[in-house]
Amino acid sequence: MHLFLIVVIFCPIFLWLLHRWNDRKVISLATKVPSYKLQMLLGFGPITTQKCSEWIPHRKLLNPPFKVSNQITFLPIFNQKVNGLFAAMDQCGYMENSRDILKFCREFTLNITFETMLGHNARAKNIDTKHIAKLVTHITEYISEITFKFFYFNPLVLNLAHRTIFRECRETIEYVKGEIDKILKSFSTGQHDAGYLENLYTAIHCLYESLENNETPREIIISGMIHLFSGAFETTSSSIYFTVLMLAMHPEVQSKLFSEICERFPENDDGNMEVTYEHLSQLPYLDMVLKETLRLFPVVPQIARQVSGGNVRLSNGVVLPEGLNVMLNIFLLHRDPQIWGPKANTFNPDNFLPCNVEQRHPYTYMPFSKGTRSCIGMRYAEMSLKVTMAKIIKRYKFSTTAKIEDFEWENHISLHLVNNPPLTVERR
């Protein structure tokens, strides 16, 4: 009996200590990907599926709502939702760390994701996006932990973790799945807001049509939406946050960007201008700033791929056999001095001047991956980032005493800072 009590009391404590012990600050290069764990949690979809025979059907299914012509219809949502971000950031001044800015960005992008992916107005449905944003953020850490920490490869340890320290994360995943299922049912019962969706072709709208035509099982629809939902929410919010930090650290870049935005939008409107699709191609320096931010801080620092179509021989003579699962380290690729020069770790938007881009191999820069399996939401992310940053820079000035060389990183599937630096936010 005493032994049983000791096990019950101390096993969870030992597990928590083991969980906290691990140097996550190192962006490592894995050679084998335990993708089955991701599939167990999130189901089959664009993120977890590696075999060509499996992911190609997913891609074809999801392509229609991500056409540029359809993405343009989301621009009014991107513009309008920034007002909620403004309301939060207007309350900022000097902050001991910038975690609040990241939190505001997550809540903002979550609202956008509900509307553009799920066709759901979160505020009208009384959905607590603040709470969900917090929970979904924990899920990325949870997925990273069980994917890369060796002791979770033991089924007994993993099962104990699921019942204790990861219980809330698993419940959140089930909650999101349940909400997606409810929306699918609202389509079939005619209870969805038809007027609200009239001018939008959302991802869930596309997937529902496939479900109705008996082309795709319901569980695949739900898991696919989980993938899109988490990808659109987490990556965009982190990109906004890292861009703000870089502008705060480089006032000369911030000043030049502000001048470009003022030239394109001369009205003194505190960032309330409407950014159209035509405007996006008229802000070249903003494009350079965003690309340089994603070079240094690729939100997804590693990607998993499976060798297909036969063995692959690398330039150094190493042969990768067909079927091998590998991880590509984008974080290190983007900071390689042989590609980016001796100041590869320095923020410099001029890296993306057209003359400099032409001199580099196209696969030296791949924040959204490359090739046939590049990120399906790349254009979506670029549009939302440009709209958001143009409006933010028109309204605020950022400053900080932090140095980029002091940053320490964690890999939670997406890139995180160990400690958020101080930041000052001023209304212009």
TrEMBL record:
PROSITE patterns: CYTOCHROME_P450. It comes from the Eukaryota. Its cofactor is heme. Coiled coil: none annotated. Keywords: Heme, Iron, Metal-binding, Monooxygenase, Oxidoreductase. InterPro entries: Cyt_P450, Cyt_P450_CS, Cyt_P450_E_grp-I, Cyt_P450_sf, Cytochrome_P450_Monoox. Belongs to the cytochrome P450 family. This is Probable cytochrome P450 313a4 isoform X3. The gene is LOC101896469.
